[in-house]
Design a protein that fits this description.
It is built from eight helices and eight strands; from the N terminus they run ββαααβαβαβαβαββα. The chain is α/β, with parallel strands linked by helices.
Length: about 220
């Protein structure tokens, strides 16, 4: 595998990467499921669907009731996102440092754009990102490469695409990065198939932050 150089731009997934939104998301789905007289998800039962494309989630979990399930889900999230939305440990410090060093940053998520922007606004984080793309902002969602390619174009970055990192916590994120020819960076310990392996793996935002600081102090190559 090729060496990894200091990134010239950094793109992030949202849920499970910069924010711990799993409690909010499962609560919103259980609200929808209660309204539709469906059984509630257990604490980890929804985990395999976390980060998957929205259309896949709704078609699988709410067959024939996709539209009303979306309505209930979004109703709950818009009402409760400020109560149950928590930044991942070290995420704000990471973003502060990257901004102070003039990194171009973006968020690309499969969350509906309206909800994504509402959550970023609630945290007062919009100033970090030159581009924010949620589901509906492009014709196709991840794992299609279109959202990542669109963000690169929107930021006007002149970096070679492999010098743009896409940081996420799921196989969908890694597949999207591979297909867009960005450097895939995994945050966390999600098991992945052999096809879409990351080039770097960090346990959390703090570990990622420490590595980026090393890169800034002295250009550093690291193979995994």
């Amino acid at each position: 595998m090729n060496d990894i150089a200091t990134p010239q731009a950094i793109f992030f997934d949202w849920d499970g990467t910069l924010v711990d939104s799993y409690p909010l998301i499962i609560a919103a789905h259980n609200y929808a499921r209660d309204k539709l007289s469906l059984s509630a998800f257990g604490a980890e039962e929804f985990r395999p669907y976390f980060g998957k494309p929205r259309d896949l989630i709704y078609s699988t979990l709410y067959t024939g009731q996709e539209d009303i399930a979306r309505q209930y889900f979004e109703e709950f999230v818009l009402e409760h996102h400020s109560e149950q939305l928590n930044p991942m440990g070290g995420a704000k410090e990471l973003l502060d440092d990257l901004k102070s060093h003039s990194f171009k940053m973006a968020v690309i998520s499969n969350k509906k754009a309206e909800l994504l922007n509402a959550e970023i606004k609630a945290l007062n984080w919009a100033h970090y990102f030159g581009c924010i793309l949620g589901s509906g902002d492009t014709q196709k969602d991840k794992p299609d490469p279109e959202p990542l390619n669109t963000a690169a174009q929107a930021l006007g970055t002149h970096a070679e695409v492999e010098n743009i990192w896409y940081i996420g916590d799921s196989e969908v994120d890694m597949e999207s990065a591979h297909r867009a020819y960005l450097t895939p960076v995994l945050l966390g310990e999600t098991p992945l198939s052999a096809k879409y392996q990351p080039k770097l793996i960090f346990k959390n935002c703090e570990e990622l932050h420490a590595f980026v600081l090393q890169c800034l102090e002295k250009p550093l190559n690291r193979s995994v």
